[in-house]
Input
Amino acid sequence: MMKNHKRKCQRLAALFGGICTAAVLAVGAVIALSACYYKDDRFPAGVWINGIYCTGMTPQEVSALITPAYYEDFDVVSVHTLQGDCHELPLEEYGVTITYLPVLERLLQDNQGYRWLRNIAEPRHYSVEPEYCYDMTQMEAKLEELAWLNENLYNPQNTVSIIKSAEAGYILVDETRDLLLRDNAVKLISEGIVNQLTDIDLADSANRELCYQSVPYTDEMKDTLEKWEGVRDFQDFRMTYEFGDHREVVDENVVADWIALDDNGHILYDEHNRPVLDETVVEEYVAYLCTTYNTVGIERSFQATRGDVVKVSGGSYGNELDAKAEYDFLLQAFLKKESGVRTPVYLSEAKEKGLDDIGDTYIEVDMGNQQMYYYADGELVLETPIVTGNTSRRWGTPSKVCYVYFKQRNRVLRGQDYATPVKYWMAVDGHIGIHDATWRKEFGGEIYKTNGSHGCINTPLEVMAKLYELAEEGTPVIMFY
Output
C-alpha cells in the first residue's frame, strides 16, 4: 500500500510540474508576442482603422494610407455667390492641412499592453477623422486678395445711372443693390473652412443678410429710375430688314441713336420723362441702308470664266431702295411699336437681293475674248463666240452690268443708216441688245475692232435661238473687256 501511495504522489508531482512548465512557456510566449507586436510603437493584432488592417504599422504609416482617401472626398470648398457664380477654394492654398497622427497615437496607447489578446477574440474597428491645422489670420488675408471678393463692394456713395453701352443701347447701371460686405463674407468663409464645410452659399437667406447690403434710393435716384422706364420703352422695338441672305436688325442698339441729345450729349426728356425722338437720325439710318444695299451702278468684282477677277462698274442692273417709302414706314412702325420683319420697297429691283445681286444665273459677255456664256444655277449651259461693237469707229460695247429688260421675236433694228431684221432680240442697255446676225459668216477673234457692230452683241442664229428660250427678262448681263 505504501508503495502505491508513493507512486501516486510522484505522478501528481510530475503532472503539476508539467502544468507549471506549460504556464511558464505560455507567459513567455505572451511576453514574446507582446514584445514583437509593440516593437517601434506598432499597432498590435486585431486593429482596423478606416477600413485598413493596421497590425504591425506605425501611426505614421497608417496616416500615409488614410490621408489621400480623405483628400479625395474633401480637398476644396465651394463658395456660391448671390450672382450665381461658384468659386472653388483648394484647402492647401489657404494654409489648411490635416493630420491623423494625434488620434492615431491615442489609439495606439489604447491598444498597448496585453489588450491585443482582447482584439484577437474581438477585432477592433475604428473610424477616425483628422484634425485641422490652419492659421486663421493667414487664411483671411489670402481670401481678402481674391478678385471676386473685391467686386461690387458696399459703398454708401453708390448710385444709379443711365449709360450708353456698346451693344445694347442705353442700359441702367444700378450700383446700389446687394453690395458685398467683404469682411463679413471673408469671416463666414473662413469659419466654413474651419468647420469642414464643403459647400458655402452666400445667397442663403441668413448668409445673404450677413454678407450683402443695399444703399437706400434717394429722390434723385428715384427720378433716374423713372427716366429709365421711359428709355426702356423707347428702345422696345425690333425690325428685321431682309436683303436676300443678309439681315439688318433695328434693335435697341440702333434705336438708342434715335434719342435726341442736348448740347452736352445728355438725353433730352419731355414733360413726362420720356426721351425725345430725333427724326433726322431715322433718315440717316435709311440712308445707311441705301448706301449699303443699293447696287445700281456700283463697281463689282466678278469672277470671269477666263479665270481672272474683273472689276465692272456702271449699268442699270441692281437694287435701289425707295428711301422715302422706307423712311415713312420705319418711322410709323417705330412710333406704333410695331416690330416685325420687313422686305423693303425698291425703285429698281434685281433678280437677287443683298450684296451679291448677280446670283448664279446670268449672261457673261467677255468682249476682250469675244466670247459669251450663259450660266444657270451656277452651271455653264451655253458658250459661243460673238462680235461686239466696232471699236475703231467708237461704237465699242460699253463695260457695265445691265440686264435683259425686253425680249422680242422678228424685230427690225433701225439706225441712222440701217434697218436690219433679226429673229431674236434681247434688249440689255438702251439701244444695245443681244441678237442673231445671219449676215455674218464668222464670229469671235478680232473682228469687232474693225468690222464690229453698232454696239450690239452679234450672236450665231442657232445659239441665239437657244439663249432666247433660256434667258428670262431680268437676267443680269455682265459685259467687260
Notes: The chain has four domains: 22-75+92-134, 139-221, 234-306+316-356, 362-480. The first helix runs from residue 2 to 37. Residues 22-75+92-134 form one domain.
